Amino acid sequence: MYRDVDFNAVEVAGRKITNYGIALLGIVLAGAFLRVFHLTAESIWLDEAFSVSISGLSVPQIVQAAAPDVHPPLYYFLLHYWMMVFGTSESAVRLLSVFFGFSRYR
Asked: How far is CA 87 from CA 11, 79, 83, 90, in A?
């Protein structure tokens, strides 16, 4: 009689979401909150200040400043445009790294 009904799942937009999916979503949201909580408790560290100073330059200047570095300048480019949109406050600058740290778990 109830063979086609799954009481442990909820259907949202045509997809079944199980209790495990809901628990996983809660864990991910808790992790996101913990990454952002007290984001500005510590002041900017030297490596962050270096990244912000390079990213504040123009794109050709970023290429020139990053040339002696062993890392490619992709992060500096991303941070350059991120700062143009979200500003240069401590929390705005750190949110790009939080976004990358959070998105790797998807």
From this structure: 40, 10, 5, 9
| Measured distance CA(23)–CA(45) in Å, rounded | 35
With a CB cutoff of 8 Å and minimum separation 6, the contacts of 92 are: 82, 83, 86
Confidence band for 5, pLDDT divided at 50, 70 and 90: low
Containing H/E element for 46?
Answer: helix 46-55
pLDDT digits (tens, 9 = 90+) for 27-43: 988 988 888 888 888 88
pTM of the model: 0.71
